[in-house]
Amino acid sequence: MSPSILEMTKDLVLAQIQTGNISPEEVPNAIRRIYQNLLTLKSRQESGFPVPAPVAETLQSPAD
Question: Which listed residue, of 21, 31, 46, 61, carries a Cα 20 to 30 Å from 39's Cα?
Answer without folding.
Answer: 21
